């Protein structure tokens, strides 16, 4: 995707040079540029990351992780990451549209509401992942998470010690301090042996 944009920019720049044109950026009122204005004002309560020391600890146990699937330029724990929106260093927009899950050691710190889709994606590509997720025994995804676990989950410390907000909104773990958050090592392959530990 970056190569395509770079090619377009190069063609525009070459045309401007040949035609002796000057290109300049100009501010445009939000009401005339509604979609970019809207996106720039999003304050995402789901945009948070774990403390780098905690990631390094998990990386020593289940790593090296090769891609951070739900991140942004400021929150990525891996050099390769997928983001919700295009940014200068993302390797792909929308983790669910990526097809390399099986080739990667995936690190997943996503909005918890996406966990059923994430488990589907892991099954589809028979992929391995470390997932940050709460202990929600009554939630429909929980049994699937347990059945795909290949190591005992690691209980994380209190959210205030590891959860780093990346916006002005209070993220899920900080809004719900009684939640027990774990790191889960999972595999989407049918022949992986489930782990016990809960």
Task: Name its key features.
198 residues, 7 helices, two-stranded antiparallel ribbon, Rossmann fold, Hepadnavirus_pol/RT, elongated, 7-stranded mixed β-sheet
Structural notes for this entry:
This protein is α/β, with parallel strands linked by helices and about 200 residues long. About 30% of the residues lie in helices and about 20% in strands. The chain contains seven helices and nine strands; from the N terminus they run ααβαββββαβαβαβαβ. The N and C termini lie far apart (about 45 Å). The model has no long low-confidence stretch (mean pLDDT about 85).
Write the layout of secondary structure elements.
Layout: H1 2-18, H2 34-40, E1 48-50, H3 52-62, E2 67-71, E3 81-83, E4 92-93, E5 105-108, H4 115-125, E6 128-134, H5 140-148, E7 154-155, H6 159-162, E8 163-165, H7 172-175, E9 181-187
Number of domains: 1
Which CATH architecture would you pick?
Answer: 3-Layer(aba) Sandwich
Radius of gyration: 20 Å
Q: Structural class of the secondary elements?
A: alpha/beta
Beta-strand residue fraction:
15-25%
Task: Bin the helical content.
Answer: 25-40%
Tell me about the largest β-sheet: 7 strands, mixed
Specify the CATH homologous superfamily: Vaccinia Virus protein VP39
Write the element-wise H/E pattern from the N-terminal end onward: HHEHEEEEHEHEHEHE
CATH topology: Rossmann fold
By DSSP, the count of extended strands is 9
Which geometry do the CA atoms define?
A: elongated
Low-confidence stretches: none
Measured between the Cα atoms of the first and last residue, the distance is 43 Å
- Summed up, the helix count is 7
């Amino acid at each position: 995707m970056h190569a395509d944009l770079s090619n377009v920019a190069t063609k525009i720049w070459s045309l401007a040079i040949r035609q002796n044109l000057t290109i300049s950026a100009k501010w445009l009122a939000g009401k005339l540029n509604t979609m970019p204005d809207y996106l720039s004002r999003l304050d995402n309560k789901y945009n948070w990351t774990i403390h780098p020391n905690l990631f390094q600890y998990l990386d020593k146990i289940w790593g090296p992780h090769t891609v951070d699937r739900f991140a942004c330029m400021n929150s990525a724990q891996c050099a390769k990451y997928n983001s919700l929106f295009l940014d200068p260093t993302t390797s792909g927009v929308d983790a669910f549209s990526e097809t390399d899950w099986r080739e990667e050691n995936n690190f997943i710190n996503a909005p918890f509401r996406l966990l059923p889709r994430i488990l589907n994606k892991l099954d589809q590509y028979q992929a391995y992942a470390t997932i940050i997720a709460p202990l929600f025994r009554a939630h429909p995804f929980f049994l699937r998470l347990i059945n795909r676990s290949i190591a005992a989950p690691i209980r994380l410390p209190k959210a205030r010690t590891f959860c780093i907000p990346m916006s002005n909104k209070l993220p899920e773990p900080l809004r719900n301090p009684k939640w027990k958050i774990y790191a889960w090592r999972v595999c989407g392959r049918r022949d992986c042996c489930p782990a016990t530990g809960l």
